[in-house]
Amino acid sequence: DAGITQSPRHKVTETGTPVTLRCHQTENHRYMYWYRQDPGHGLRLIHYSYGVKDTDKGEVSDGYSVSRSKTEDFLLTLESATSSQTSVYFCAISETSGPNYGYTFGSGTRLTVV
Amino acid sequence: ELKVEQNPLFLSMQEGKNYTIYCNYSTTSDRLYWYRQDPGKSLESLFVLLSNGAVKQEGRLMASLDTKARLSTLHITAAVHDLSATYFCAVDTDSNYQLIWGAGTKLIIKP
Fold first, then answer.
1. Are strands A109-113 and A10-13 parallel, antiparallel or unpaired?
2. Are B98 and A59 inside 8 Å of each other by CB?
3. For chain A, give me the number of helices (H) and strands (E)?
4. B60 within 8 A of B76, measured Cβ to Cβ
5. In 3D, which of A51, A18, A14, A31 has the Cα closest to residue A105?
6. Omega before B8 cis (within 30°)?
7. pLDDT tens digits for A11-62?
8. Which of A42, A102, A108 sits opposite B88 (nearest CB)?
9. A111: closest CA among A1, A35, A53?
């Protein structure tokens, strides 16, 4: 178990309000990722981090920002939520060696922007 | 543009039958992943394929990778209802550890 928890699990927010989603991991993984999942699109990378204060944009980063001030926490912020950001958001970590090589995902956050 | 295409996108089949899901990708890569997702749940890792010719099996599922053809297959043998789920393949690029995902194959297995 990679020990990834996401919060909140569900959130409904109004258009134009800021929203922050949290991803917490307990095993000191260097790489962390935020994806969104929409019907017919699989998963799409929003932002990723390769260390404390080291982040970079993914495929669909517009309208999102991230921060990683501690190894264990990776925050995703929607500065001003829009209806197009209604989605399921998954956090992930990656292992680059050993028996758990690959990517492990959190339980997801279902965000609805009304 | 990097693309990962799965087919079929939807598959309804009877228990006991065999079938194959295909995953084609457009970039050179020797790292491919298969995941399973149940409705409303997270993604569960099924297979990690790390080289050309890799074959892995778990129960009624078997995955293979042909990097020269840029093709991976997920074969289901004697399907059972519990295998009903959506299956995704994802390709690891050399660019900043980004995964490129297929759209998913929704598999329904009828008793």
1. parallel
2. yes
3. 0, 11
4. yes
5. A31
6. yes
7. 999 999 999 999 999 989 999 999 999 987 789 999 999 999 999 999 899 9
8. A42
9. A35
C-alpha B89/C-alpha B25 separation (Å) is 10
Beta-carbon neighbour count of residue A74 at 10 Å? 29
Summarize pLDDT for B61-91 with one digit per residue, the tens: 999 999 999 999 999 999 999 999 999 999 9
Would the CB atoms of A58 and B103 count as touching at under 8 Å? no
Q: How many residues make up chain B in this entry?
A: 111
Q: Write the CA distances from A46 to A4, A28, A32, A100, B72, integer angstroms.
A: 18, 21, 11, 23, 26
Bridge partner residues of A44 (DSSP): A36
Q: How many CB pairs below 8 A link A and B?
A: 47
Tell me the pLDDT tens digit for each residue of B43-59: 999 999 988 899 999 99
